[in-house]
Amino acid sequence: MPATLPPDSVGLVIPQTLHFDEPLELDSGKTLPHYDLVVETYGELNAARSNAVLICHALSGDHHAAGYHSMKDRKPGWWDSAIGPGKPIDTTRFFVICLNNLGGCKGSTGPTSINPETGRIFGADFPMVTVNDWVRSQERLMRRLGIVQWAAVIGGSLGGMQVMQWAISFPHALRHALVIAAAPKLSAQNIAFNEVARQSIFADPDFHDGHYLEHDTLPRKGLMLARMLGHITYLSDDAMRAKFGRELRAGKINFGFDVEFQVESYLRYQGASFVDRFDANTYLLMTKALDYFDPAAEFDHELSRAFAATEAEFLVASFTTDWRFSPARSHEIVKALLKAGKRVTYAEIESEHGHDAFLVPIPDYMNVFRAYMGRVSTEADA
Amino acid sequence: MPATLPPDSVGLVIPQTLHFDEPLELDSGKTLPHYDLVVETYGELNAARSNAVLICHALSGDHHAAGYHSMKDRKPGWWDSAIGPGKPIDTTRFFVICLNNLGGCKGSTGPTSINPETGRIFGADFPMVTVNDWVRSQERLMRRLGIVQWAAVIGGSLGGMQVMQWAISFPHALRHALVIAAAPKLSAQNIAFNEVARQSIFADPDFHDGHYLEHDTLPRKGLMLARMLGHITYLSDDAMRAKFGRELRAGKINFGFDVEFQVESYLRYQGASFVDRFDANTYLLMTKALDYFDPAAEFDHELSRAFAATEAEFLVASFTTDWRFSPARSHEIVKALLKAGKRVTYAEIESEHGHDAFLVPIPDYMNVFRAYMGRVSTEADA
């Protein structure tokens, strides 16, 4: 709720909707006959169209990465700490674009959109989308904007997976790939957490097989549970200890099932507020896209072979207390890149913020990020 | 389903129900006017009544720790690997007793019992029970059996918390305290997982405010979700990788929400089968007993002061990949005991089995356990 906008903010921004009429065939075999993508841009595209940076969002992210939609906004976009004049992704140098991915719920075509085949809300009939599908839709967006090569493609978590897929699928289309707090594929434990989150949503009687909007309801409890569980995996044990410890909300034990510990209060709040801003079917699709991502699978499960044709220079960054995608998972990426003979910079940032650290302006992290982006050229390769 | 029983089994066992008429005042301020405890015993009590060992069970455990109830049983008791002739808790030397705790669902008075005040099933009206309440009820059981001092009190996880409480509350009543895979109190993250499990149960429309039995139903989906989530925290990331990896059940991705990965199949099976053998209200009570346990709280949060009056000799054991109660949590216990000048042996066992390791007959673990129990005297202190 800034009375005046901070000087290093990109300021007030207006999302734009781009319509695509060319059918998109998805990995699942299904086809989207046409679709919309909602985007935001920050900074100016230069005459050579060579200073564009693509931001890929994570599970619950969207196109609103920086700035404010109105002077009344309580908070700026989700990566405002990293995007703006003088920030690591410096909007005085770069033209930055961020989109809401297909299957999203913030304006791009997704489960809350109207299915052109039936005239009714897609709901559960929206097809599964993969990281590869997203990157292919983003490549069309790139062509629409007349951009031939990104200066950089950047993302954290599920966003980092899209960055890797970009480098693999369209080697010449990006000069730099910034893969932050990501993994080359989910572990069984990661999949297990996603599965419990999905089952929480399915178990909600208001889910109605994914057609809850037609029933004029929402699977509030199920999505709330999924988000509560997600939050545990985003924060580190240390961060939770520092933030809540075993603090009792009322100062004493009440021997009941109402909120007793502060951490319970936090989780319930996070869960309940998420329901008002996110769609359960989108949540389901995003978790499946995470589960499916495994670019090495087509290369005999040899990740270095998946990276063999990439041309981008990489920054890989991880955070010490991230247990969702731990530093060890980033090491897998770095080792595979090195084995493939690629240029890669690796940064392991000390942080107590767990997986969420990639959204937090930790000084060491911002410094590494800024230094790396400082040597990303705004001019196309010769 | 043993055709003949293994030679190192305690054999066929028959649970016994003991009735207690003396009212038990609980930490919550409520009173149980009378109650039953179901127990099993293995081995023979010696004439001096000095060779008795108490086994305390964990969250989903019960009195059936060893042996078989019938020749048709598919599996023996939950700690059969550790209890029997020649096993670490050697039934040729010790008289072993294990009980179902108050609030349980396997025959001891709990939420599925009849409330004597109303003549109806307790359900959600069963009072909260704490680790301290359990230990006090176990001390009455001890007196009923004419035992003045346990040779040892032994437990893993929540069972280990009861062992600590025994040593603190009744210093002279046990010669040895074996605390396995436990923690001196839950972390915020531990509480957070419990809270999501509880909310899963509450969210089930068949929960009926805890009076589901009177509605002739069960909160199956909610309890299933709680158990699925629990299972993720019992297994290590490594164990899940070794057990399931990213194996696809049908060999290929099917782009749907049915089971795709083996780990999903495992979790759903574990969750679904738990519902048939466990009560949701008991599950809720057990998670709260875990959350509340914090013996240092009464001693200015100084654990060594909580241990100051203890007389038992301790074995503390932890497992390298246990992330629910990691070795660091056992170190807290050991450090506090050392600071208090107590005798303690510590073993950190290499294992990939996560928290579940305490139930697994890992050779190093069994050797340490056997060696320690080998020097536990069956004779009373002079």
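qc> Chain A touches chain B through 55 residues (CB under 8 Å).
qc> done
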